[in-house]
């Protein structure tokens, strides 16, 4: 008989569980590879018949009668004041208008059944005096929803006579077009049903801001588009890949976004796309965006309009039904035992309810941190206080003041432990992932042309994602639903299990999101804490917002050491494979540094991470 200690028995059980999980992961990987090769073979087979596929798919893609997206409820009448939601925005020498109605021009099918593809459109319903700057495209898998800007000159915009010999108008016709790509192959007999992509050739000192798409080989008329004077433009960067090599001749289409974003960025997205037959990701784009040279950002909402937007769009934030680490207000956290510690005062001092005795300004230099000293007190504080919880709002300009971002921050006194998923097996990580004070947020992006909710950013630990309004879940009129994950409080647009790691292999830290009776209605429970563009004194920032140091002590885990023990106990043939699997897990398994407050995050002044 072999006698085993409890520790040895637990170790053997862990080994057996991983041996069960590993074949499952390996089997899934093999299946994914087989599916991937099959899809690649089908794609190559399709490329051989590109012309016929192109011809047959055009009539099926985004023809009249297609589905347009609109918010569940009509927009209200916004409070008066400023130039917010007046449909036109001034960029000093130019006025721009947002066009959301389109006419189908041409389409590309990206699969044999025609369910995946991309359609290209020209804007229609352009107001008198405004001119097109480029065409629009999007995937056919979603309802049609997008925009392009059209522009017109503001009379005498430069402050000099238009008869002056050195006057250069903001907009000019192109001098020619260059054909960037067409779907016509060398063996094609005609051009019917094919697409042609044209880049305007600008006069000296001007730049094109988009491409034109036609279904005929003749060059477009010069009057169909305008080029913009170079000093009124800003740099663009590629954003999301839309099409990649759909024919014998390489062809890439991607969306773009201004390179200079955030509170101080003045780049304005035009809504057009970029395309090339030879472009690489390292190449600078030769199609820029607009630049807002108006220092006043006059289309941003005033205080009354901000409140109206929040009351109309404020999402309901749902917590998991098994969540035990709920949010609270910051003042509740301070009143219930939070203390300020420093390298010079390790005993700590209580923090008053408003945080007025916290050090303000500076940087996170490691000299101060917040903690809850009493063991019995911290157990109580960890569970939060849902009744006092509220969203703390930071309102800021986006995309050169043509959009408004409302970042909604939620505070939880404690971040709970993580759960590791390895195939079909779930491992509790004990203390791993725990830390005092957890700041999370989501951000509403609203068009300043109309006041329409355009998208929501869901912050998820070290990253996040923008989700278009057409992909949101709505609960009450135009109010969306945001799901906060169990223990970690990352935000997601839909319920489910999300992995922080490798979702393909089923390996990572679980984020479980579901609806429950635990929720915070941000349309009622909120406080505006910052809106710098409104000027000094309009919004009084709370004292605690100026605290730039750590909101919790640093905690170091030995989880990596424990994982190494499990790996070393495996048979030699499995050790290397398991090491590769473990290496895909997040770095957070090694420890948790004390988190900082909202103003120390890079997205406070900058754009969101993705």
Provide a descriptive summary of the structure in words.
The chain is an alpha+beta fold. It folds into three domains: 6-48; 88-156 and 169-291, no CATH class; 308-600, no CATH class. Helix content is 16%, strand content 32%. The strands form eleven sheets. It has a six-stranded mixed sheet with strand order 30-29-28-25-24-37, with no helix packed on it. Strands 20, 31, 32, 33 and 36 form a five-stranded mixed sheet that branches. A four-stranded antiparallel sheet has the order 1-2-7-5, with no helix packed on it. Strand 31 (474-476) and strand 32 form a beta hairpin. The termini are far apart.
Question: Gist?
Answer:
The chain has 610 residues and is α+β, with helices and mostly antiparallel strands.
Write a concise keyword list for the protein shown above:
single chain; 610 residues; alpha+beta; 3 domains; 6-stranded mixed β-sheet; 5-stranded mixed β-sheet; 7 helices; 32% strand; globular; disordered N terminus
- Work out the count of structural domains: 3
Which value, in Å, is the CA radius of gyration? 28 Å
Strand order of the largest sheet: 30-29-28-25-24-37
Give the biggest beta sheet. Answer: 6 strands, mixed
- Strands, total number: 39
Q: Assign a percent range to the helix content.
A: 10-25%
Question: DSSP strand (E) fraction?
Answer: 25-35%
Instruction: Give the quaternary arrangement of the chains.
Output: single chain
What is the overall pLDDT average?
A: 83
User: Helix count, per DSSP?
Assistant: 7
């Amino acid at each position: 008989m072999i006698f085993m200690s409890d520790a040895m028995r637990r170790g053997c059980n862990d080994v057996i569980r991983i041996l069960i999980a590993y074949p499952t992961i390996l089997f899934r990987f093999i299946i994914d590879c087989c599916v991937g090769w099959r899809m690649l073979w089908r794609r190559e087979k399709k490329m051989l018949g590109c012309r016929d596929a192109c011809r047959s798919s055009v009539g099926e893609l985004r023809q009249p009668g297609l589905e347009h997206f609109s918010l569940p409820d009509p927009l209200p009448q916004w409070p008066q004041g400023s130039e917010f939601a007046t449909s036109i925005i001034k960029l000093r020498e130019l006025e721009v208008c947002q066009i959301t109605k389109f006419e189908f021009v041409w389409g590309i099918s990206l699969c044999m059944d025609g369910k995946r593809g991309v359609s290209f459109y020209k804007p229609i319903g352009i107001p008198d005096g405004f001119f097109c700057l480029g065409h629009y495209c999007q995937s056919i898998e979603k309802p049609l929803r997008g925009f392009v800007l059209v522009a017109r000159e503001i009379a005498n915009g430069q402050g000099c006579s238009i008869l002056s010999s050195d006057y250069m108008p903001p907009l000019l016709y192109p001098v020619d077009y260059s054909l960037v790509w067409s779907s016509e192959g060398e063996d094609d007999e005609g051009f019917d049903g094919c697409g042609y992509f044209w880049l305007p050739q600008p006069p000296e000192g001007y730049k094109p801001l988009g491409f034109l798409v036609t279904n005929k080989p003749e060059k477009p008329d010069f009057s169909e588009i305008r080029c913009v004077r170079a000093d009124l433009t800003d740099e663009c960067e590629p954003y999301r890949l839309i099409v990649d090599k759909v024919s014998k001749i390489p062809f890439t289409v991607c969306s773009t976004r201004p390179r200079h974003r955030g509170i101080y960025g003045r780049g304005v997205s035009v809504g057009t796309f970029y395309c090339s037959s030879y472009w690489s990701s390292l190449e600078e784009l030769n199609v820029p965006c607009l630049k807002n040279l108006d220092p006043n950002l006059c289309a941003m909402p005033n205080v009354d309009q901000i409140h109206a937007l929040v009351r109309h769009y404020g999402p309901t934030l749902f917590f998991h039904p098994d969540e035990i680490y709920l949010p609270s207000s910051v003042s509740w956290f301070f009143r219930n035992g939070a203390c300020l510690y420093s390298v010079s005062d390790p005993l700590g001092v209580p923090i008053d309810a408003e945080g007025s005795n916290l050090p303000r300004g500076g940087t996170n230099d490691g000299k101060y941190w917040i903690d809850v000293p009493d063991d019995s007190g911290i157990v109580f504080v960890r569970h939060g206080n849902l009744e006092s919880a509220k969203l703390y709002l930071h309102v800021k300009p986006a995309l050169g003041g043509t959009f408004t971002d409302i970042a909604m921050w939620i505070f939880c006194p404690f971040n709970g432990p993580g759960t590791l998923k390895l195939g079909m097996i779930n491992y509790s990580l004990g203390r791993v992932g725990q830390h005092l004070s957890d700041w999370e947020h989501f951000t509403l992006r609203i068009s300043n042309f109309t006041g329409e909710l355009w998208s929501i950013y869901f912050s998820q630990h070290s990253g996040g994602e923008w989700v278009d309004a057409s992909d949101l879940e709505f609960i009450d009129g135009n109010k969306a639903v945001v799901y906060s994950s169990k223990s970690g409080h990352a935000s997601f647009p839909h319920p489910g299990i999300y992995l922080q790691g490798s979702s393909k292999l089923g390996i990572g830290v679980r984020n479980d999101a579901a609806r429950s009776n635990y929720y915070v209605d941000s349309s009622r429970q909120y406080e505006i804490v910052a809106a710098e563009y409104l000027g000094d004194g309009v919004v009084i920032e709370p004292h605690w917002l100026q605290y730039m140091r750590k909101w919790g002590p640093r905690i170091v885990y030995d989880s990596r050491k424990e994982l190494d023990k499990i790996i070393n106990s495996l048979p030699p043939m499995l050790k290397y494979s398991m090491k590769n699997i473990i290496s895909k897990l997040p770095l957070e398994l090694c420890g948790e540094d004390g988190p900082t407050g909202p103003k120390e995050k890079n997205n406070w002044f900058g754009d969101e991470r993705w």
